[in-house]
Amino acid sequence: MNKLSILFLFSFSLTFGQRQIQHEPERIFNTLNEGKTTIEYAKEKNLKKITFLRDKVLSSSIEFDKNGNFIKTVGMENNSVRHSTYKWDVLNRMIEKKHFSPDGSFRYGYYYRYDNGAELMYKIKDSILYTKETFIKGENIGTHSQYDSIGQITSKKVYVKDSEMRWLSSSRFQNDQIYVQYRYEYLDNKKYVTKIQFDHNGTKYSEKRHLDEVKLDGKLEHYTDDGWLFRVDHFDESDNLLKMELFEKDGQMSRRESSKYDSIGKLIKRTKNFFNKNHKEVYFFKYDKLDRIKKVIKKRDGNKEIFKYAYEVY
């Protein structure tokens, strides 16, 4: 485990190697794999299928090809999209994804084309270009563009990262006009963010620099752009996340999450205290002989849920 386990706390919007629609048993699974995407984990473990159960009832499932790419997903707790299918080319690039309603009817989908390093995503319904992604390796410059129904760019983001893939800058455009830019600095143990805003003529009218993060011994502090401390993460000597604390603007703690690990660093217990909602959640993690998660017990205010995980391999 490492600092990427912070994702368990805040973010379930995942990378290209993950699914976007996920339910709690599946979300938990994805955060326990030491920063690996589901695709990386499935390939490493030679997985054919994972089934996620909530109290013995199917919650979701993922089927994989032999390269770890997901080819079919099912989400029984989603009333909008019940299942999805995916296709990949010989370079393991996604070339199609389709989403289906609970009654089995096609809901929406996209297909992909790759041209001179760019990924082009089109809507299946009308073959209209929807997004374009580029990334120049070595220079670490990327772009993301979104298009309207007549092929005009409605929004665009241009970003630059350093050799460690940390953000250096991010510029956002609407109607070919820049409206905001973020610049990032890393000085000693501190990270600063400068936000620059532009009017409809592209003239800068605001520039504000603020402290964003401070790395201390065994601790990482996070600040808002208004300058108040809103989150503190605590780590042990192995970089495992021991405790996360969230604060209101007045300094009152609104949430605390504490974690315990076994002797080899696997998460075995996580406790979440929501002080502003006056309730607590406790998770217990059990693993099989192959160190795969097999069961999670969730307790909340006297109620209990059990999430189970079943694996099929090639």
Task: Write a structural description.
With about 325 residues, the protein is mainly beta. It has one domain. About 5% of the residues lie in helices and about 55% in strands. About 15% of the residues are buried.
For the record, the count of structural domains works out to 1
Helix content: under 10%
Helix and strand run: HHHEEEEEEEEEEEEEEEEEEEEEE
What is the typical, i.e. mean, pLDDT?
92
- Taken from the alpha-carbon principal axes, the silhouette is globular
Biggest sheet overview: 22 strands, antiparallel, barrel
Taking Cα atoms only, what radius of gyration do you get, to the nearest Å? 22 Å
How much strand content do the residues show? over 45%
Number of helices: 3
Q: Detail the poorly predicted runs.
A: 1-18
Straight-line N-to-C gap = 26 Å
Q: What structural class do you assign from the helix and strand content?
A: mainly beta
- Tell how many strands the DSSP assignment holds: 22
What's the quick description here?
This protein is mainly β and 314 residues long. It is 6% helix and 57% strand. The chain has one domain.
Write out key terms for the chains shown.
22-stranded antiparallel beta barrel; 57% strand; 3 helices; 314 residues; mainly beta; 22 strands
List the helices and strands and how they pair.
Layout: H1 7-10, H2 24-31, H3 38-45, E1 47-54, E2 57-64, E3 70-75, E4 83-88, E5 94-100, E6 106-115, E7 118-123, E8 129-136, E9 141-147, E10 153-161, E11 167-174, E12 177-187, E13 190-198, E14 204-216, E15 219-223, E16 229-235, E17 241-247, E18 253-261, E19 267-274, E20 279-287, E21 293-300, E22 303-313
